[in-house]
Amino acid sequence: MSEERMGRERETEINRNAIGHRAAWMGLIYDEAVKAGIDIEEVMRRAIARRGEQDGKKFRAKCEDITDLASFRKVFLDELGMNTFDMEVEECSAQDLKIQFHHCPLLAAWEDLGMDDAQCAKLCDIAMDGDRSIAGAMGLKFDLNGAIADGCTTCSLHFHK
Questions:
Q1: What are the residues facing 119 on neighbouring strands?
Q2: DSSP string covering 41-101, please?
């Protein structure tokens, strides 16, 4: 294995661990709030959506052509992100961007904490509010057509006009 490839794999592992660490915080905060009888879901959704909107505005500002999803792909899907989530671009055109995620470091962290399937699915859906808001800030629609946390083999994201 080349030194360059080993470096990319190490960078991917570091990024997965960092994302997993933050996901563990998210999961534990949610779990402790539920145990305390606090309905925190809506607050978490708003906070994550707010962050997604901020990210979406940054992506929009970096796009060469905001009317073309191929331009969005260039700023949204960098090499590190693609490797971290083991992404595969299924389709990319001016109108559609379909992405398959084969790995989710967030889900891996929640599973490592012993969270059950229902908790993982709930946390996944809450986390997806970031992607939904990225799409909204880009003037796009977003469909989640399956998630690993729901038992699918991949997370299937579709950004479209």
A1: none
A2: HHHHHHHHHHHHHHHHHHHHHH-S-TT-HHHHHHHH--HHHHHHTTEEEEEE-SSEEEEEE
Nearest to 88 by CA among 10, 146, 156: 156
pLDDT greater than 90 at residue 4 = no
Q: What is the pTM of this model?
A: 0.93
Please state the rounded mean pLDDT for residues 55-75.
Answer: 96
The CA-atom distances, in angstroms, between 112 and each of 41, 121, 123, 140 are 21, 14, 14, 34
CB atoms within 10 A of CB 15: 16
Starting at the edge strand found earlier in the chain, the sheet holding 87-92 runs 87-92, 96-101, 155-160, 141-144
Rounded to whole angstroms, how far apart are CA atoms 47 and 30?
Answer: 13
- Residue 42 has phi, psi (to 5 degrees) of -65, -40
Query: What percentage of the chain carries pLDDT values higher than 70?
Result: 100
CA distance 150 to 104: 12
Count Cβ neighbours within 10 Å for each residue of 63-87 and write b for 16 or more, e otherwise. Answer: beeeebbebbbbebbeeeeebbbeb
Task: Kindly state the tokens that stand for 93.
Answer: 């055109």
